[in-house]
Task: inverse folding
């Protein structure tokens, strides 16, 4: 069922991660993502994996949700793993038909999958613990200096806010439209690729029409509530960088230093 | 001067072939501050178009629409007009902008540039006024239709709106949601004296108003107390509108020669009249 | 042969913190040729229930049968069983997608892989039944019609499948009084003339009172009342529990009875109610109690 999707979901809570400033979280996420690529040693991965697990536990969000967020990607992970397992030259430990599985491939496939999984888990840590609004708010503030070079920070953030707000509504609507067309004998799961694309028309057309209508009504509602762009707008929730954020930044810096040291030492 | 003054207002939607369809045809109407007016009419009678004139979403093709003395066509007062008249629309899903209830209520005052601690206070007051305080941190898609409409009402209250215009706010709700919305509006009208313009298809809701305006083909065709309007059962049916059940039954009984007063609208009044 | 639900339980998002059981061990048999109304609050499980009637949802536990055949499974007979039940969703006009009214109505029959003539015949007859003139409307874009007309096109799209059972979820929601009146008359006629078995979900007690031969009240995923209207609307305690109000005629007549007028309260149209009151008054001699 479509309504089973968990990506982008926010779980309200009071953990340290929840209390952090979204700007700090966004920046630290970027740093950690970079770290995944820079410190590509077993020691670095071990440290980052431990960090990911520790943060996931401390977030108070059910751990099963993190596993669920990986689920849509499992076949990409499996595929990546197999490709590297068979295509990396080195010491062959298993042979089947034309495939040579190597020890080097095993290690490489494993680390690549781990790298992808870590990227997903770190992103989930951000979206699970940050309300969509404060997330976009954080992005808007971070992008604001770029306004001088023409980046429409407020508009982008408003678009994000609305998109996030309507994800559950549109998922529900898609679900209903699919059920309705199925009741009229539509079949979405058989036939070749071209046929399958054609089968999407009875879903996409109603969905587009309804989205346009929603957009139109929403624009009217926003105007009626005096919306006139970002100029002169205030915020109920001002962002504050506080103790938690400094602590998190400090901890991340130390971790990076440690991983740097490990990499230098060749661990 | 009345709070809302509409004089000889015409509005035509532009159409693709150049011909123009008159959605509002020489409408004149005035509403005093603190009134509770219900607007009835079939789909396409022009009632939503009229509502959209009250906060300058649409501007008259000819004629005048004044709110608290301000001409809605006067660009200098545009934001004052929109702050004075708050709108609640039919589809509860398409007017909630933020992904959290309290953030949505804050949307209006944020646009007006109100300082943040003042917004906080207004949002808390507005949510309390519609009885939604307990839901302040909820995501809108987890609320019922009636609750979403109450959030939308709170969003206008946080702008310190003087007049609430509701465009079929209950059309998509179940009976529980309908009652929630109507009760909230009645209470706000009673307790804070807010002016209410309430567009609806439901006669029981119209019966709660002090005054009923009936629209047909872009014109105001009836304007009076619920008792006056609903006693004209024949005329209402010809316009494709219902009347409250008690009014209809009293009318049928009178046709059968049973003597009953002309102005019966509620079950209670019928019981009293029949059991004098 | 009937539609049968046997001990059906349904759980949404099983295995997540959002898990919610919408139906709890529900058993229901819909007899051939009957007109049943299902009422209940939003969240009572009524929409989930009807989605089991044509296999859109499959029971987490229990089974759903049409004419003795399970709706679950990939077999030919399961598919045929599902096709016997037509389903009109809430706000069905939101599923229209074709460029013309006729093409949209033909979508269902085309999926059944019928011959061109048969498709045409069905489109014509379905349009006739919802009172949309074939010649006038066949080439019109459905998106240029009024709300009430769009809804009739959508219903015609389901009728063109020529189901033996028709399920309608809130068919009159959002229509103005006139459009609502017309649609209810169409549904009553489908039942009377086409001998269609009809199940409709509604929270409008007035509609239910006028139309149904049998009334099912749902609350919290269970069936609370299953009885003819003359009984169901007088199950005060159950109705209060389900958060439902009596139909306006019943409420009014009960109020008059309380005031001392000796009138039976089981009238479901304004006309019927007025006749009862007139009779009661004449019996008493004069317009006083």
Result:
């Amino acid at each position: 069922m479509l309504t089973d999707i968990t990506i982008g979901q926010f779980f309200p809570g009071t953990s340290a991660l929840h209390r952090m400033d979204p700007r700090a979280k966004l920046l630290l996420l970027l740093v950690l993502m970079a770290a995944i690529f820079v410190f590509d040693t077993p020691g670095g991965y071990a440290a980052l994996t431990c960090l990911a697990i520790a943060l996931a536990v401390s977030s108070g969000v059910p751990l099963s949700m993190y596993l669920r967020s990986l689920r849509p990607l499992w076949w990409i992970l499996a595929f990546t793993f197999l490709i590297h397992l068979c295509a990396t030259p080195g010491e062959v430990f298993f042979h089947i038909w034309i495939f040579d599985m190597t020890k080097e491939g095993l290690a490489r496939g494993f680390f690549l999958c781990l790298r992808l999984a870590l990227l997903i888990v770190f992103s989930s840590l951000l979206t699970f613990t940050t309300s969509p609004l404060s997330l976009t708010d954080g992005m808007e503030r971070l992008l604001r200096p770029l306004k001088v070079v023409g980046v429409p920070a407020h508009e982008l953030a408003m678009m994000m806010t609305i998109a996030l707000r309507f994800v559950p509504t549109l998922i529900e609507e898609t679900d209903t439209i699919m059920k309705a067309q199925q009741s009229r004998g539509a079949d979405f799961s058989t036939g070749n690729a071209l046929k399958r694309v054609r089968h999407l028309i009875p879903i996409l057309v109603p969905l587009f029409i309804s989205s346009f209508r929603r957009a139109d009504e929403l624009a009217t509602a926003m105007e009626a509530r005096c919306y006139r762009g970002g100029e002169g707008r205030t915020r109920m929730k001002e962002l504050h960088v506080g103790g938690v954020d400094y602590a998190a930044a400090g901890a991340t810096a130390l971790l990076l230093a440690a991983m740097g040291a490990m990499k230098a030492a060749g661990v | 001067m009345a709070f809302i003054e509409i004089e000889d207002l015409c509005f035509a939607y532009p159409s693709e072939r150049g011909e123009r369809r008159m959605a509002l045809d020489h409408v004149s109407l005035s509403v005093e501050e603190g009134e509770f007016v219900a607007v009835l009419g079939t789909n396409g009678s022009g009632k939503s178009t009229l509502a959209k004139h009250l906060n300058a979403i649409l501007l008259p093709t000819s004629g005048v629409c004044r709110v608290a003395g301000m001409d809605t066509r006067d660009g200098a007062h545009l934001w004052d007009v929109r702050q004075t008249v708050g709108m609640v629309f039919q589809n509860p899903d398409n007017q909630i902008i933020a992904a959290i209830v309290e953030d949505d209520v804050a949307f209006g005052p944020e646009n007006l540039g109100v300082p943040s601690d003042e917004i906080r206070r207004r949002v808390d007051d507005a949510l309390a006024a519609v009885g939604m305080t307990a839901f302040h941190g909820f995501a809108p898609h987890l609320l019922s239709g009636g609750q979403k409409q109450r959030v939308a009402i709170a969003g206008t209250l946080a702008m310190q709106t003087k007049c609430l215009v509701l465009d079929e706010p209950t059309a998509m709700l179940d009976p529980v949601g309908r009652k929630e919305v109507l009760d909230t509006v009645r209470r706000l009208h009673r307790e804070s004296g807010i002016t209410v313009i309430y567009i609806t298809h439901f006669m029981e809701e119209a019966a709660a108003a002090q005054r009923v305006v009936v629209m047909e083909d872009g014109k105001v065709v009836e304007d009076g107390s619920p008792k006056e309007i609903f006693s004209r059962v024949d005329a209402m049916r010809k316009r494709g509108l219902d009347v409250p059940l008690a009014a209809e039954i009293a009318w049928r009984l009178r046709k059968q020669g049973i003597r009953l007063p002309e102005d019966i609208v509620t079950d209670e009044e019928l019981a009293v009249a029949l059991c004098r | 042969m009937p539609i049968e639900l046997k001990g059906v339980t349904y759980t949404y998002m099983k295995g997540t913190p959002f898990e919610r059981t919408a139906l709890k061990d529900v058993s229901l048999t819909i007899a051939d040729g009957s007109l049943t109304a299902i009422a209940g609050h939003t969240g009572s499980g009524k929409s989930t229930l009807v989605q089991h009637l044509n296999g859109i949802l499959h029971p987490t536990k229990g089974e759903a049968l049409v004419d003795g055949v399970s709706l679950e499974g990939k077999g030919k007979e399961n598919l045929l069983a599902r096709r016997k039940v037509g389903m009109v969703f809430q706000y069905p006009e939101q599923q229209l997608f074709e460029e013309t009214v006729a093409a949209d109505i033909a979508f269902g029959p085309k999926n059944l892989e019928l011959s061109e003539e048969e498709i045409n015949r069905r489109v014509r007859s379905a349009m006739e039944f919802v009172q949309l003139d074939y010649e006038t409307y066949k080439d019109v874009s459905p998106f240029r019609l009024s709300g009430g007309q769009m809804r009739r096109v959508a219903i015609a799209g389901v009728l063109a499948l020529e189901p033996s059972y028709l399920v309608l979820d809130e068919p009159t929601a959002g229509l103005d009084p006139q459009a609502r009146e017309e649609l209810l008359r169409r549904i009553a006629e489908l039942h009377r003339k086409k001998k269609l078995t009809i199940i409709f979900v509604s929270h409008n007690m007035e509609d239910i009172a006028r139309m149904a031969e049998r009334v099912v009240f749902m609350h919290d995923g269970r069936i609370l009342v299953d009885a003819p209207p003359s009984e169901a609307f007088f199950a005060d305690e159950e109705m209060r529990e389900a958060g439902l109000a009596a139909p306006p005629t019943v409420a009014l007549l009960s109020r008059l009875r309380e005031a001392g007028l000796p009138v039976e309260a089981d009238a479901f149209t304004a006309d019927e109610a007025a006749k009862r009151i007139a009779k009661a008054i004449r019996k008493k001699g004069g317009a006083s109690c």
Notes: Residues 222 and 274 of chain B are 28 Å apart (CA to CA). The beta strands of chain B are 4-14, 20-31, 36-40, 62-67, 70-71, 85-88, 163-167, 195-199, 211-216, 219-224.
